[in-house]
Amino acid sequence: MERKEDTPVRKTRRKYEEKNKEKRKQASGNFGTMIPRALFNEINEFLEENDITKVRLIKEGYEALKKKKENGTLTTDLP
């Protein structure tokens, strides 16, 4: 892939990104997982209809699974 021409703005952004890369890595993460397209579309549609963010979905899903584990009702079999 050919790199775009350097401009003062691009140089500044690259410098900033390089300088803050580690700080951003320590502050946040990414699951980077793949799911079947049909399930992906279904989840996205549900989130959009109910004005729910993906971050909220992950947080609340995690909390619900933690509670199940504490209650001893968490199972490992997937649908």
Q: What tags apply to this protein structure?
A:
elongated; mainly alpha; 79 residues; 65% helix
Structure report:
With 79 residues, this protein is mainly alpha-helical. It has three helices and no strands. It has helices at residues 8-27, 37-49, 54-71. The longest helix is centred in the first third of the chain and has 20 residues, at 8-27. The radius of gyration is 20 Å and the shape is elongated. The protein starts with 7 loop residues before the first helix and ends in an 8-residue tail after the last helix. The model has no long low-confidence stretch (mean pLDDT 91).
Molecular shape:
elongated
| SS element count, helices | 3
Order of helices and strands: HHH
Please report which band the strand proportion falls in: under 5%, 5-15%, 15-25%, 25-35%, 35-45% or over 45%: under 5%
The Cα radius of gyration reads 20 Å
Present the secondary structure layout.
Blueprint: H1 8-27, H2 37-49, H3 54-71
Short description:
This protein has helices at 8-27, 37-49, 54-71. It has 79 residues and is an all-alpha fold.
